[in-house]
Amino acid sequence: MKVAITGATGFVGRYVVKELLSNGYEVTCLVRNKGKLSKIFKDSVEGMEVNFEDKNSLRQALEKANPDYLIHLIGILVENRKKGETFLKVHYLYSKNIYEVSKDLNIKKVVHMSSLGTHKEAPSMYHRTKYMAEQELIKSGLNYTIFRPSLILGPQQKLFYDMWDITKYVRIVALPGGGDYLFQPVDVRDVACAFVKALSDRETDKSILELCGPDRVSFKRLLKDIFNYWDRKVILLPVPKSFMYLGGLVVERLIQPPPFSSDQMLMMWKDNICGLDAEAISDGVKKVCQKEPIPYQEALKWSLDEFTNNVKG
Q: How many CA atoms, within 13 angstroms, populate the side-chain half-sphere of residue 189?
């Protein structure tokens, strides 16, 4: 069976591709840069360079790939306006284009990466554009599964790189709202399992599923656990979210992409945990992978072991 995938070179994408290959799928990666793809996967997958703003480019690539399934992972955490990378373009326009093209092809199912906290009333542009993308897929007539993961743990998690670099020189980290904001971290290996299993799982057809680990963890605890693993003594300074929001507005004018953004503060409109949205199935990992999700401490240790080896290697 053939699968076309976007975002293959990203954090989650590389694990999804490996899971696809281990399950015998033939994989075609729709990418902007084939060079980056070959560095990661060598010749184990086929790559096609596409312009996600151009429906003709997408149509030519998909017609050539002729996939049975499509996995769409592309997303950004912060905007980079110097490069024209906005939430509206990357989350919404790219999704709209690929789904408008895909509905004319014989694709059995689309598995789409969204995010926990996505809702039509969400205050952040990140979550609103994620919601808009979901709606494009739902109304397209395509068969689909939409996944909304909480914070994803894995060696390539951007938070690790940011905290590693910042606290090498400055041992103070701001805690928005005191750091009580809750995540329900999910292991990237469980996320990859869910995406691949959903392709052939008819019970997930036309469903929205949340992906969470078993443990609810505050941002403060997560940072403490990271710094304890690195044996770094870091002062965690509580700062009101309103101050952080205003600071983000200033930083965005000076640095692109910004180290943190005003929109990220708006993302914290409710805890990032499963079970808060009645329209979504809350136990996605267990339902799709038929197993209990990997515990937080196990996932974090594996992630930091691999991350630390990479940055020191």
A: 13
